[in-house]
Amino acid sequence: NTTIFTKIINGEIPCEKLHEDEICIAFNDIAPQAPIHYLVIPKKPIINLLSCQDEDRDLLGHLLLVGKGIAIKKGIKDLRTIINNGEEAGQTVFHLHIHFLGGRSMQWPPG
Ligand code: AMP
């Protein structure tokens, strides 16, 4: 399961990196849908949430807490987090990623 995110993790293509540790990397979305829009992705090549297992419990928690930490640093107090799982749900890159969006008011339900 190699995607464009594998290349970002390996440093083969550049990104605006916000955070990196042994488990994950966070970077700005290349096509931002809000004034603030970044992604947190695991280094482990997991396709999406539906592919996660019990063994990924800590990893999943870590991704959310890293994303939260970035939001706090940026001073966003209202944010939306999204995981698109599968083509029909809007997933285009088949490597798990959590979207974090902020800096504007949001509508519900999403399209
Ligand atoms: P999704 O549609 O949920 O699979 O989200 C994939 C996201 O990855 C989209 O918001 C894209 O804009 C973003 N994206 C694709 N390629 C890159 C890249 N090279 N750097 C940063 N973000 C990217």
Task: Lay out the secondary structure.
Layout: H1 4-9, E1 17-20, E2 24-28, E3 36-42, H2 57-74, E4 79-82, E5 98-102
Antiparallel strand pairs: 1-2, 2-3, 3-5, 4-5
The chain binds adenosine monophosphate (AMP).
Adenosine monophosphate (AMP) binds near residues 29, 30 and 93.
Number of DSSP strands? 5
Over the alpha carbons, how many angstroms does the gyration radius reach? Answer: 13 Å
Shape: globular
Please indicate the percent range of residues in DSSP E strands (runs of 2 or more). 15-25%
- Strand numbers in spatial order across the main sheet: 1-2-3-5-4
Oligomerization category of the chains in this entry: single chain
Main sheet summary: 5 strands, antiparallel
Contiguous uncertain segments of 5+ residues: none
Bound molecules: adenosine monophosphate
In N-to-C order, the SSE pattern is HEEEHEE
Distance between the termini: 28 Å
Number of helices: 2
What percent of the residues sit in helical stretches (DSSP H or I)?
10-25%
Secondary structural class: alpha+beta
Average predicted local confidence, pLDDT: 97
